[in-house]
Amino acid sequence: MRIKSFDELTIQDNFIFQKVMLKKSICKAVLERLLDISIKDIVYIQEEKTLDVSLETKSIRLDVYVNDDSGTVFNIEMQTSKDMEELVKRTRFYQSILDMYHLQKGQKYMTLNDSYIIFICTFPVFTGNRHKYTFKNVCMEEHDILLNDGATKLFLSTKGKMDDISKPLQRFLDYVDGHAASDELLREIESAVDEAKHCETWREEYSMLSMDHYTYWKEGVAEGRAEGLVEGENLGKAKAKTEVVVQMLRENISMQMIAKITNLTLKEINEIGKAHGLI
Q1: H-helix or E-strand containing 92?
Q2: Which neighbouring-strand residues pair with 78?
C-alpha cells in the first residue's frame, strides 16, 4: 500500500472529506441528501472528537460528529478500506460508545439520542448491487415489527448498480466516484476541496497525523505477524516506517519533526532520504 501525497488527495479520502464537512452549510446539505430528510440546523459536538468511556476501553475519533435541531446524532466517514467485516464491527462499537457517552449516570434510557452512523464507501458493499443499505433492528420472526431503539447504520456505495436512490444522491455518489460536479452543492463541495488542498496547516497535519500513515504502519506490523516470525514482524514495521519517512520528506517536513514522530535518529532519516534520492 502506497501512502498518498497531500496533493493526490480527493474527496474520497477521509482527511479531505472531514475538512470539507467542517463547512456547516455543506455538512447540513450532505446529511439531507444522504438521508432524504430536512434538517433545520446542525451543531458540531466537537471537531475531530475523541470519545473515551474509561481508561480500559478503546477510544474512537469521530471526524464529522454533529447534532441536528432535534438532538439526533450523526457520525459520517468516508471509507476506502474494503474490509467489510471490520467496518460492520466498527459500527457496532461506535454505537455502543456513543450510547455510553451520551447517557450520564442516573439518566433514564429514554434520554438516549437517536443516532446515525454513516459510512460512504468507494467500493461495492454487501451484495454489490445497491447504492444504499440501511440497517435497523427488526424482529426476525415478524419483520414488520421494528425495535425502534433509535439506532441506524447506513452504508452507501459509489459502485452500486441499481436504480435505488434519488437523483440528487446519485449525483453525489457519482461525484465522489470521480465524476464532474453536476449541481450547486457539488460545485460548492468541489470549491471546498480546492480550498482545503491549499491550506498549509492541513498539509502539515496530514503529513504528521493522517490515518493513512497510521493504517499503513499497522498493516506493516500485521504483515510481519502473518509470517509468524519476530524477524518478519520487524521487517514489516521497518518497511512501513520507511514509507512514512519518505512521504514526509516529499512533503518537506523537517528532519527534526520526522525524528520526533517516528523515533528514528537524524542519521537514519538521512540514510533513508539518500536511498530514495530525496537528500
Answers
A1: helix 84-102
A2: 120
